[in-house]
Description:
The complex is a heterodimer of chains A (301) and B (423).
Chain A: H1 2-12, H2 16-45, E1 48-49, E2 59-60, H3 64-70, H4 73-105, H5 112-123, H6 126-136, H7 143-150, H8 164-192, H9 196-204, H10 209-237, H11 241-246, H12 258-268, H13 272-300
Antiparallel strand pairs in A: 1-2
Helix pairs in contact in A: 4-8, 4-10, 4-12, 5-8, 6-8, 8-10, 10-13, 12-13
Chain B: H1 2-26, E1 29-34, H2 42-55, E2 59-64, H3 70-82, E3 90-94, H4 98-103, H5 111-114, H6 117-121, H7 126-132, E4 133-134, E5 137-138, E6 141-153, H8 154-159, H9 168-182, E7 188-191, H10 199-209, H11 226-241, H12 254-262, E8 266-272, H13 275-281, E9 291-294, E10 307-315, H14 322-332, H15 335-345, H16 352-355, H17 358-363, H18 367-375, E11 378-379, H19 386-401, H20 407-421
Amino acid sequence: MATGASMIERMRDPSEASLGMLLLAPAFLLLALIVVYPIATLIFNSFFDLRLSGGGGMKFVGLENYLLVLKDPDFWNATWNTVLITLITVPGALVVGLGLALLANLPFKRQWPVRLALLLPWALPLAFAGLIFAWFFHTEYGIVNDVVRRLGFGGEPTMWLLRPGWAFAAICLTIVWKTSSFMALILLAGLQMIPRSLYEAAEVDGASKGQQFWQITIPMLMPSIIVALIFRTITALQTFDIPYTMTRGGPGNATETLAMLIHKTTIDYLDVGYGSTLAVFMFLLSLAVTAVYLRRIGRQA
Amino acid sequence: MKRRNLLKALALCAAVAASTGSTGALADTTLRVFSGGANQRPDLMRKLFDQFQAANPGVKIEIETGGATSELQRQYLSTVLNAKDSAIDIYMIDIVNPAQYFGAGWLEPLNAYVGNPADAMKPFLPVYLQSNVVDGKVAAMPGFADAMFMYYRKDLLEKYRIAEPKTWDELAAASKKIQAGEGNPNLQGLSIQGAPIEGAVCTFLLPYWSQGKEFNDASGKLTLDRTAAVKGLNQWLGMVDGGVIKRNVAEVKTPDTVNEFKAGQVVFAINWGFAWDRFQADNDSTVKGKVGVMPLPAMAGGKSATCVGGWQWAVSAFSKNKAEAAKLVKFMSTPAASKFLAVEGSLLPVYQSVYVDPDVVKAVPWFKDASNVVIAGKSRPLSKDYGQVSDVVRTTTSAVLARTKKPEDGVGEIESRLARVMR
Lengths: 301, 423
């Protein structure tokens, strides 16, 4: 009875440290539940032969799954596609996004239409963007081939999504379109924080527009660029929706990404053990890329 | 004062408990049914459920519908069943799924409710014994059948005095003659599904089977004949080169074939049974009354074969009302239910006897042509890993039809990938 009363007393007037712990506890619990527990389960499963289709139980296989992944041509194909998509679409979205942000930052009379136009692609669900662009690139009904025909390039229409190279390019284009508005939003916020006085001073010193861009805008914008790049790179490594809706990874598996391979292995093939191992590899890839960025930020700070 | 309130509260609780208990005895079972997508006609299933509810007071049936295609439904069900969710008691599943789901321990064996497999399955079309009995256990009961049919433009064949082609080469020749005669550059000779969807598995199997070859033996082991498989794929590619099949066939999905045939742009079309109603009953169909159904052609010297589909009713292993659920499944697979679905929705019966039922023949005359096709039909490979089998076959077939892989390489890939899975 006495201890209960004293505990209530203490709860009423906690020290700073225990108050801090109390306030953090819900967040910690939530993180443990939605981040730590699933990742721990994933890593645990990756050491087992766990196939739901067989009806058998789990069998511990140690590192066998990992060795199989390293020898799996599908894994390397998907990883290569994922890395290539990242290498193309992240800089692509940065350049396009920067252009859009500079445009939106111009002193228009009405700024809201420009900003709304920036927001729309970002607000569109990824799967919709994929379906819309798949329709654009359709051999017979697509607007792309219609334009090509109207421009007078006759002959056989190109089957965009059935040629490995073109399908890949179409997917990259869609991703750049879809994600550059997100880049632009972050960069626009950054642009608006650059004081006008810097440009006025540069003007007085006789710096050209180009010099102003490279010497003032880009360096002052660097923190925003880095933040935007980190977000974009991580989502690029997880690319799933757009290739899934546009090509289903086809033709063959020419546009299959790592996230699609994991989805296929676990959901379609019901091979949870092997799928978990693939996911661990994707986790490591994301971790490595994030570490590189974080080190860069650390150096800057 | 306090004590009296407490007593009152207790009395109230007891009363509530008693009353729910008594109503519970009357209407205690709610069965939740996953009833497929729109093509599986949940509206008609609802009517059958209402009949069951009327005959079984105390049972309430809730219905849930899913994605439009078999793959979408498979993905959803894999997630739900993987989580051992007890919310859904009964599942409508595609013919390719019982082996996989039963193997994963997701379906309740029905032997205790329907009797031993051989007797329980005897009245149904033979293909359902193979696909619904897994390891001597009844995994699911047939609801309605489906099959790949060869639809054709009766009017065009009559106009050019062409008989129903018996081989693929005859079909190609007939198409070319009609295409040349009509002078319409948009007219396709034959429409098949080449996109990497479930239908592409049949696109691979049809010319292969029609050479008298089997994809797997009775135990599910892969028995792929490479030469025949390559020949089958080359048959399609030859028809693409000849202008009979359109060049972007690897983009064609099931609804594309339906829509293009409806628009009068196709002479021969391979599609599921539901397409008949679309051709004959849809307002935007330009081919009403001009459609015929015939057995699928074979390779020269071979024998016609088709892909049988259909939908089954299964009881979830995680259901809390298995006995009631099994009763409903039995009801849904009676000849009466089969007849109702045939007459009301022209869904193909799973009983051979229902095809010749006078009411059915009157309501859907084309079923007399259909029954021979369905009875001669074959089931796709039965495997606990059907998800993987299907994915490998349809992805590779699509890539070959897109000409990003040579038929020889594609068949080699199918063999090497499935040798481990189907053994």
